Amino acid sequence: MEKTHLGYLENMDLLTIEAQILDVLQEKENTIMVLNQTIFYPQGGGQPSDTGIIKGPAGIFRVNEARFVDGVVKHIGIFEEGTLKGGDEVQCIVDKEPRALYSRIHSAGHVLDMVVGILNLSWKPGRGFHFPEGPYIEYSGKLEGIDLDELKEKMTDLSNKIIQKGETTRVLFIDKDKMAQYCHFVPDRLPVGKPSRVVLYGDFGVPCGGTHVQNLAEIKQVVIRKIKRKGDTIRVGYNVVK
Ligand SMILES: [Zn+2]
């Protein structure tokens, strides 16, 4: 099947886009829309899926979840009105509020990465969980000899200073071998010889495919909930304050 063009990679702020339905599939009880392009962020990289609607000439489809499968974004949901078919020109509309919250939570994770760098903790970033229910990011590194309450306070304080100062999010598409100029950490899993997206705040770059706030000030406020060791990893739990 033709790969879905991922419109959100180029423009994370676009909440509506025109597209064409390539196929309408039925997989067990799920109805699935496949489009030539999408701005629905499919769940991945620790960020929840976008929700919203796909509106066509003879129907409205509610997208409850978008999933990325072998280059194709599957929009899973139900018809709210009428029906839609392959070839239809449609309008995609992403639900604004959940997307804004997910982008704030996800971007706050990058602020914590910056703070870890500023504090010279020598932790290597790992997995992130950027759902509204108890977001956290994981690192590998040392916790021994660190006063965790003090660190928690310091991280909260520094994060909020960065957020208050504000910084515009920039996006670059660059090859893995050039990323070290922009990024403190380049994961092995990135493809070679094919540009990947780097998200930049000032001179702090992160290879990342998620959606982000336009300016760090939009995060508003961050609170570090806890810092603890879990197996081989350090887990930093946080919240964004409404
Ligand atoms: Zn990101």
Question: What is the gist of this entry?
Answer:
This protein is of the alpha+beta class and 242 residues long.
3D architecture notes:
By secondary structure, the protein is an alpha+beta fold. The chain is built from three helices and 15 strands. It has helices spanning 7-10, 96-118, 148-165, and strands at residues 5-6, 16-27, 30-35, 37-38, 52-56, 59-69, 72-82, 89-94, 124-129, 136-140, 169-174, 196-201, 204-207, 222-230, 233-240. The longest helix is centred in the middle third of the chain and has 23 residues, at 96-118. The radius of gyration is 19 Å and the shape is elongated. The structure holds zinc ion. The site of zinc ion has 7 residues, from helix 2.
Keywords:
six-stranded antiparallel beta barrel; four-stranded antiparallel sheet; 242 residues; elongated; single chain; alpha+beta; binds zinc ion
What string, H for helix and E for strand, traces the elements in order?
EHEEEEEEEHEEHEEEEE
Continuous helix count:
3
Distance between the termini: 41 Å
SS elements, strand count = 15
**What ligand species are in this complex?**
zinc ion
**Shape call:** elongated
Helix content: 10-25%
Question: What is the residue-mean pLDDT, rounded to a whole number?
Answer: 93
What fraction of the residues are assigned to beta strands by DSSP?
Answer: 35-45%
Radius of gyration: 19 Å
- State the strand order across the main sheet: 2-3-7-6-5-8
Largest sheet: 6 strands, antiparallel, barrel
Label the structural class. alpha+beta
Oligomer state equals single chain
